[in-house]
Every structure is written in C-alpha cells, then in structure tokens.
Amino acid sequence: MKNKKNYLTPGPRTKCIHTSGPEDPWRALTPPLYQTSTFTFPDFDQVDRVLKGEEEGFVYGRMGNPTTERFETLVSELEGGEKTRAFASGMGAISAILIHLTKSRPEMAFPKVLYGGTRAFIEKYLIPQGCLIHWFDPREEGWGEELSRRLSPKTAAVFAETPSNPVMTVIDLGRLSGIAKSAGVPLVVDNTFATPILQKPLALGADIVVHSATKYLGGHGDLLGGTVTGNASLMERLSFEEGSYLGATLSPFHSWLLLRGMKTLPLRMEAHCRGAMNIAEFLSHHPMVKSVHYPGLPGDPGHKVAALQMKGFGGMLSFSLGDDQKARKVASRLEFFKIAVSLGDPESLIEHPASLSHRQMSPEGRMALGIDPGFLRVSVGLEDPEDLILDLKRALEA
Ligand SMILES: Cc1ncc(COP(=O)(O)O)c(C=O)c1O
User: Fold this and answer.
1) Tell me: the pLDDT tens digits for 315-356?
2) Residues with beta carbon inside 6 Å of ligand 1?
3) All structural domains of the chain with their residue ranges
4) Residue of the nearest CA to atom 8 in ligand 1?
5) Percentage of the chain exceeding pLDDT 70
C-alpha cells in the first residue's frame, strides 16, 4: 500500500478494501473511474518527462489507466508479486504470457488436466506455431520424474492449474516448482479456482501467476478480465510487448467493477468454501451419486496436498451420476443452480461438460481426462447451503 501510512501490515480483508493508488483530489470514498481512452498533456516537456519515466503519468488507454493500475496493484499485493498486468479476459492473460515466453524458447510443459480454453490455445496456436508440448499427468505415479526428464534449456515454462478445471486434480506446487527450478524453467500457475485468498503460488515457488478475473475476483458474473503477476522486469516487458500490442486491454469500467467486487473477496471465499464443503459431504453420502471430486473431502486424492498448500478448499466441486441422461435431467430440475458455464458468482452454477464445455471432445478424450458421461461440475454460490442441499436432494430424488 504505497500511499498509506506504513505502521500496519494489513490482512487480506483490509487490503481489498483500502486499495493503493493516487490520492483523489476530492477524497472520494470509492476509487475514481477514469473512463477515458487517452490522456492529455499541457506541453511536450511533460510528454518527455512521462515517457522517460521521470514523472508518473499515462499516455494511452491500451498502455495503462489509473483505475486499472489500482486493480493491478491490489492483485500484486494479494499474490505477493512485484507487478501485475491486467487483460480483457483470462484467455487474454494466458495467451499473452504464453506468447511472450515461447518467443525465446520453443517448448512448454502442461498437465493433461487443464481448462479447455488453455488446451484449445495450445492446440490452435502454440502447436501450429511450432511449439513442442510435453504433456504430463499429475494423477499418475512418477509424474515428477517423467516431467524432469522432459525439461531442458529449450523449455519456455511449466504451466499448471490447481485445483484443475473441471476434475479438481490438486497438484503439489512445492514439488512442481522444485522440478522446474532444478531445470532452470519458470513455473506459471493458473490460480483462478483458489484465488490468492486460499493459495499463494509465488510463496510456493512459482514464478508467474495468472487469473481469470472473470470468476472469483470479479465475483458477480458481470465482467470479463484476466491478470498476470510476476517479477517487475518480466512484467514490464510483457506490458510493453504483448500487453500493449495484442490489444487485450482490460477496460477502465471493468477494472472499477473488479475493485468493487474484490472488497468482499475474502468474505465471499469463506462462504463459497463453507457451502461447497456442506454440499460435497451431502453428495458423498447420497446413494445416486457415484463419485464426488472435492479436495476438502478427507478421501479425495488431493486432500493431503490441498490441506497443506491451501487455506480453504474452494467453491468448486464435481460429481458423477454415472450416465448422461440422469445428469442432464437432474441438472435441469434444479431451481437455484443455473445451467451455465463460468464460475465464482453469487449464483450457484451447474454444467454437464459432455453437453456444454467439453462437447467438442470425443467420449474417449473426455474419459481420459476423468470426465465420464454422468459428470457434472458445480460452482457453489453464496446462497444458504441448506437451500442448495434441499434443491439437490429434490432434483436427485424426483
Ligand atoms: C481455470 C481457468 N482459467 C482460465 C479461464 C479463462 O478465463 P476467461 O473466460 O476469463 O477468458 C477459465 C475460464 O473458465 C478457467 O476456468
């Protein structure tokens, strides 16, 4: 908090409310929204000073904006990183950092369990551009040794997402960062599901953290956004190169909405975690449910690692009803869970990957990821958990 009296080390709730940025001349309680595409100068001497970095200032909205910078500073403070660059969506952020890293080294390593959009970017952009992909499967014994063997000075980065979308695989970030470090390869972590409130990848050894800010950071289902956080020199290069010239700039209004949404991020995460735990427990005892994937359940394969590297188990879970007709019917009968992709909103959302997010994949491809025909993914919202459980019970038993 660079403009605050530094006699306190604020906690995440305080940081999210008392954000850092330029003093507003009118001392407005809420951060001002600089809804402008460009910035003016009284003369060219000031242009020179701003462009030489001798004076703080903004030139053009694609390069930076004070409202967006306030949001970026907050994300850096929460993640414990030096600098953040905001983007127009999570994919804007992920594509920019992957393009940046693969400019100098032609190989990358990815886990098989990964958000479908990231996988599509690999298949539709990185591979056609000549990037060699090393896939590893963190669900298999010996994945660490296998990954170590594949890394070399040609590897641009190891990428990971934990818990992963939609199968909720937990990856041991301490172990993964050790493997990446001993090969001299940076580790990029997608922290969308956990948020910096529940998990801090940089403290666990990662070099770069990305987010779909569309999800929990925004938290109200009313915007798209993304972030990349890392060391200052890398982030300055990313901002100046892909940040400015690929054009996926976060709008000032969405930055302002993000600042508003993030005031309640720590409180919302507590409620999402509590609701998801209650629902996971209910589902795990229901006779119609074949399997439940939630790292908060003691029997979950990711539980031990999640309990060590996360402060809470998050608001996402998935479960299977065995066959696809049952899954589609049960989801359609629900009242409070809306059928929709996306996640992290106050409203509970449910989706059937075989019908929606992973529809383009073959059934065999889905099965290899752990998505069987009856698999449903749930984003537990902020409603009363008892209402959500009654809704699920009614839909399952109708
Ligand atoms: C884990 C994860 N990363 C990245 C993204 C992409 O974010 P966006 O939709 O904001 O581009 C998503 C979207 O669902 C996601 O779930």
Assistant:
1) 999 999 999 999 999 999 999 999 999 999 999 999 999 999
2) 89-91, 115, 117, 161, 165, 190, 192-193, 212, 214, 224, 226
3) 12-262, 265-397
4) 90
5) 98
Rounded distance between C-alpha atoms, residue 381 and residue 275, angstroms: 8
Q: Are strands 187-190 and 155-161 parallel, antiparallel or unpaired?
A: parallel
Q: What string of H, E and C letters represents the secondary structure of 332-373?
A: HHCCCCEECCCCCCCCCEEECCCCCCCCCCCHHHHHHHCCCC
For residue 327, report the distance from its CA to the centre of ligand 1, in Å: 23
Q: Which of 212, 257, 343, 345 to mutate to test the pocket of ligand 1 (most atoms within 8 A of CB)?
A: 212
Ligand 1 centroid from CA 212, angstroms: 5
The catalytic site residues sit at 62, 115, 190, 215
What is the whole-number distance in angstroms between the Cα of residue 236 and the centre of ligand 1? 23
Compute mean pLDDT per 10 residues along the chain, 398 residues long, and list them.
Answer: 64 96 91 97 97 96 97 98 98 98 97 96 98 97 97 98 97 98 98 98 98 98 98 98 97 98 98 98 98 98 98 98 97 98 98 94 94 98 98 97
Please state, in angstroms and rounded to a whole number, the distance separating the CA atoms of residues 292 and 279: 10
- Quick: pLDDT tens for 144-185: 999 999 999 999 999 999 999 999 999 999 999 999 999 999
| CATH, domain range 12-262 | 3.40.640.10
Q: For residues 217 and 220, give the distance between their C-alpha atoms in angstroms, rounded to a whole number.
A: 9
Amino acid identity of residue 332, one-letter, is S
Q: Which CATH number fits domain 265-397: 3.40.190.150, 3.90.1150.10, 3.90.1170.30, 3.50.50.60?
A: 3.90.1150.10
